[in-house]
Amino acid sequence: MQSFKNYLTEALKAEDYEAAIVIGWHELNGKEIDLNAAGISKSVYDTLQKTPAALDAGRKIAEKVLAAYPKLKGKKAEQFGRASTKVTAFWSSYGASNPTPKTDILIGDMRFSLKIGIAQLMSGGKDESTATFYAAMKNTSKELESSPQFKKVGQILEDFVQASLAPTQLRPLIKSGENEVVNKGEKAHKEAMAEMGKLFEENKQFKIAFAREAMSGFEKFGESNLAAAEFMLVATADGSSVAIHSVYDDAYCEKIADRMKLQARFKTSSRKIKGKKTGEYNFWSVISLIVNAMQESIDLDGEYLQEINLKQIATKISAKVSVAWSRIKGFLKQGVMKVLSFMGVTPDISINKRVKF
Asked: Which residues neighbour 268 within 8 Å (Cβ) at sequence distance 6 or greater?
C-alpha cells in the first residue's frame, strides 16, 4: 500500500506516469534508455528521478503489461504523446485539426492510452466535438442521421463558441448576462448536455460509438495509425492494480459509455501581448467526457488513498463510521454470548468501494 504521506508528495501529470512506465519497461528488459528515442523529455526524466514512488509505480505497471503480453518482451517502448501526426480528411472536413495522439505509450506494435485516477476521454472545442459527433454517427447507422434528435444536437453544436475575446474574466459576464456571445454559448452548453444525454439514452449504439472514438481516435487518425489507441491501460497511481482493455470490446465501451460524465462548458486563457497580461480573456466552447479510471477507496487505518480531497475524506470517514456502528448494533442484538465473545476481540472493519474503469 502507498502511504498517505508519500501520495501527498506526488504532484505528477499523466505524461510523467507515461514516462515512468517506459523507463520501467527498459529496466525490465535490461536496456539502457535513450531519452530521445523513448520520447521522454529531459525535464520529465529529471522530475521522475526525484520521485522514486512514481518510478516504482511505472516499473510495476510495466511488469504487469509484460505478464499480460509476453510476446512484447524485448520490444521497443516509447512515450508517444508528443509524436507529430496528421488527422484524416474526414476529421479535417469539420475544421478539426488538433493532432494530439490518443496513444500515450507504444510498446512494439501495441498502442496504449494510459488512464490513472480521474480520466478525461476528450476535451474538444467546437470543431473537435462536431467531428467526434459525426464520427460516432458514421459508425452507428445511416438512419440515425435523419432522426430528429440527432439533427437537434447537430444544430446545437453549431451555436458553440469557436473563439472569442472577453474584456474580463468570464464568470462575471456569465453572471451579468450582458454579453450576447457568452449568453448564446451558455445556452448551447446547457442544451447540448440535455439533448445529447437524451440522444445517448435513445440510441445505445451511438453512445458506444461516441465513447469508442473518444478513447481511440480511429476516425480522427485512421484505425491503423500509431496515434490511434487500441488498448486502455488503466492503473492506480501506485501501480498496484492494473487492467488492460481493448477498445474493440463492445461490452467494455458500453460500460465506459454508461459511466462517462458529459460536460459542455467554456474554456479560457489569459490574453498576453509581448508576455504581459492585458486583462482580457480568450474563450471557447468545449465538450468534455470524464470517467473515474479506477476507484475511490479509503481504509479506516488511514494507509491508503486514491484521491486526496479533504472534504471527500471527511465525508467518507463519517459514512464508514456510521456503517460500522450499524454493524455493531446488529451484532449486539444477536445475544449475550455473542456480546461476551465480542468483548475479547478488537474488530477490524473496513469498506472498499471500487469503480473499475
From this structure: 166, 169, 170, 281, 282, 283
Given CA atoms 163, 167, 169, 172 in this order, what sign does their dihedral have? Answer: negative
Cell triple for residue 345? 476481540
- For 110, phi then psi, to 5°, come to -95, 130
Q: 103-137, pLDDT tens digit by residue?
A: 999 999 999 999 987 778 888 999 999 999 999 99
Dist. CA 1–CA 127, nearest whole Å = 43
The pLDDT assigned to 13 comes to 83
Separation between Cα atoms, residue 31 and residue 76, nearest integer Å: 10
Show the cell assigned to 78: 516509447
Higher pLDDT, 339 or 141: 141
CB 172 within 8 A of CB 182: no
330 close to 268: Cβ distance less than 8 angstroms: no
Residue range 294-336, pLDDT digits in tens: 543 222 223 322 223 334 444 444 554 454 555 555 555 555 4
**Phi, psi for 166 (deg, rounded to 5):** -110, 145
**35 with 42: CB under 8 angstroms?**
yes
H-assigned helices in 41-139: 42-49, 52-68, 89-92, 126-138
Dihedral sign for Cα atoms in the order 88, 89, 91, 95: positive
296 secondary structure, DSSP code = -
Crossing angle (nearest 10°) for helices 204-216 and 126-138: 120
Q: Is the CB of residue 304 less than 8 Å from the CB of residue 297?
A: yes
